[in-house]
Amino acid sequence: MSMTELVASIAILLVSIFIFVTKSSKSRASSIPNPKAPKSYPLIGSSVAIFANRNRRIQWISDLIQSSPSATVVIHRFFLDDSHVLTGNPANVQHMLKTQFQNYEKGSKSRRALFDFLGNGIFNINGDSWKFQRQLSSHEFSTKSLRKFVETVVDTELSQRLIPTLSAAAASNAVLDLQDILQRFAFDNICQISFGYDPAYLLPGLPEAEFAKTFDEATEISSGRFNSVFPYLWKIKKFLNIGSEKRLKEASSRLRQFAKNIIKEKKQELSKNSSLESVDLLSRFLSSGHSDEDFVTDIVISFILAGRDTTSAALTWYFWLLSQNQEVEKEVLREIKEQSESPVYEEVKDMVYTHASLCESMRLYPPVPDRQQGCKTRRCFA
Ligand code: HEM
């Protein structure tokens, strides 16, 4: 290549970059109707504002949505990254979740970021596989399954584990970490719906919760991939197998091994007794003819993720709020006493006040904040 050709190529390249940058910054600026929206610069988008607000992300997003006339904000990070639409506008939520649902699939970047942890589980899949998992999972939420679940699993976990643990602490004036207790409670419950397996984490002495810790680690590192100011840093770390990515790899492989052992046991159980009266999700998937262990593992991991932190976060905030509002606590107690003669599943049905106070608590402290406050969210059965 001659010198003139080289100079000409460089000039063309520079002009193209200039046009791209000017165009993209113009289109970015014009797509933001909110005067308080974070500044978006060529190439780096709003990375400066994202970095500045990294420790108050949820509050920052809520403030942005509230200050937007359309209750909707579009945020850009690096120029190669997708735009993020954050909305608190009911019409937009309806458009995304209902009328144009098919247009709002989980994107390939998000799928890649979650793949090491969730594989092709319900939270990370689109199309027919999503539909299939959704249909089979929805059986878990039929009145019959819920009743059975509450009457067997939850009631036993409550009467034999949660209440004795709380009573023992009250009798000895011991201080408990309620969040930890409720996470154990939720984990025992969700493992029993998902696998029909009891990890027995809510026992006196509060045993080391190895699987739950590994689960937390995988959840934290995977969501960190989204929240990082430099969106592709995780890929470099993954390639080099260092730091958090190395830990994620180890955690995912421990989780999968754990799930696979349970799947093997369940398969043996089902082959010995095909008429097993079991309501757990794993048995349902295996009985539907799906025996591919990787696929079934993915499904089960997504389900644990769906049910564990959500329930425990909701309960932790609820009890904290009750402790701050004694009038509400009195009303809830009154309602519980009134219903205490009814069978366990029936008693909750008429607890209007308790139900309303739980809803209010979840409105104030959403258990899945970045899904419930702003981002595109898909409907949960719960
Ligand atoms: C207070 C409790 C709960 C809250 C606040 C909650 C919230 C949510 C939210 C916001 C989503 C949408 C996530 C997204 O689109 O990315 C979701 C999805 C889901 N949740 Fe829940 N959830 C709760 C309890 C549960 C429980 C106990 C289970 C299972 C036993 C469960 C199973 C699921 C499943 C399977 C999905 C995926 C649905 C789909 O993609 O079609 N959730 N949940």
TrEMBL record:
Q: Which GO terms describe its molecular function?
A: heme binding; iron ion binding; monooxygenase activity; oxidoreductase activity, acting on paired donors, with incorporation or reduction of molecular oxygen
Q: Which InterPro entries match?
A: Cyt_P450, Cyt_P450_sf
The reply to whether Isomerase figures as a keyword in the UniProt entry is no
| Key words of the record | Heme, Iron, Metal-binding, Monooxygenase, Oxidoreductase
Its required cofactor(s), as named, are: heme
One Pfam entry name: p450
The superkingdom of the source organism is Eukaryota
Q: Which family does it belong to?
A: Belongs to the cytochrome P450 family.
Record's protein name: Cytochrome P450
